[in-house]
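Just curious: can you write whichever protein you like plus the matching structure tokens?

***
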Amino acid sequence: GEAPKYELIKADTEALAAERDYQAALVRVNEAKALLRGLIGAAIPADFELTGELPMQQTLPVLTTLQNKLADSPSIQQVKKIGEVAEARLKLEESLRVPGLTLKAGVDTDPDVSMLRLGLAIPLPLWNKREGQIAEANAYVRQSRSVLSERELLLNRDLEAAYQRYLIAQGQLDAFENGLLKQAEASLKVAEAAYRFGERGILEYLDAQRVYRGVRRDYLTARYDYVNAMLEVERLLGTELIAVK
């Protein structure tokens, strides 16, 4: 009748959708491998395979501990070095206000007399205020301090955001691993058994498969978000926090 025919069409549609998702995922994997190969160089073959495990068992320290490490990040240290150069320039300009003294000496020699000449050279004017140079150096100092303050604010903001994403992903993983995955798998097994014994139709079985795949996909996304958030914290701090096997 019409019902079995409809179920067959529905099954074919689900199969095509699954094949489409698989091919799309395969394309993304190949694109990621090509990008990685481009970053590393042509020393690895085009058909290489990745091995190892994501650091799913590792965790980050508390946020305050991470914030205390921000001062040592390369981004902050770079701005601090620029500030030190600006401070040194200001001190130099201020020291140049005092005139430099030059001591000169010489010897005049005649057949009968030799004379030693000593002299002290003082530039004029005696006091060069160098107001323009000092004002410019002061401006660079203020600018470097402003850049440092802005950089610290931005890094703190980005660190807090990355840490919140880490906590959210961690909570999602706990929910999946402590019940959702097992519930979805159990529902799929029940639907499969009922279908095999003729107690349910193919559409109900396909719906159970779709729900399970959706839960599984969301679980894998949470795993990615978890690791990606930790790597973002590492990038902001400029130091290694997790070890990849």
User: Anything to note?
Assistant: Residues 57-97+130-237 form one domain. The mean pLDDT is 84.
